[in-house]
Amino acid sequence: MRLDKYLWAVRLYKTRSLAAEACQCGKVTLTADGRELKPAHDVKIGERYSLNIDQLHKEVEVLALPPNRVGAPLVQGFMIDRTPQEEYERIQMARQYAFEKRDRGIGRPTKRDRRDIERFKYE
Fold first, then answer.
1. Would you give per-residue pLDDT tens digits along the chain (123 residues)?
2. On the chain, which terminus has fewer CB atoms closer than 10 Å, C or N?
3. Sequence-distant (≥ 6) Cβ neighbours of residue 77 within 8 angstroms
4. What pairing do the DSSP bridges indicate for beta strands 56-62 and 48-53?
């Protein structure tokens, strides 16, 4: 089975074209040697992949090859999520602090305020 098809089938990406694009951009690597993989890479049982999905750095291990796209409850039979819990906590914390609140009546942020906000959020 092709890597892009596998990533789509186990619901790591919403569409197969998004999975293929992630492979082409170097966001999917083989954990064993850090090699960037192409969409046509043959998936083998037992291989571990590192994925960069938005800001999340996910690690998965292949258990079996699905015949086609599977439902969310069945995904556990085809892969093991080896992502550290700290990674999920980091993403959760980033989501909490992504919301910004401004006091009412102080007007729109200036260019300087906007740059400060972006520096705080993304650095």
1. 999 999 999 999 999 999 999 999 999 999 989 999 999 999 999 999 999 998 889 999 999 999 999 999 999 999 999 999 999 998 888 877 766 677 888 888 899 988 988 888 776
2. C
3. 63, 64, 70
4. antiparallel
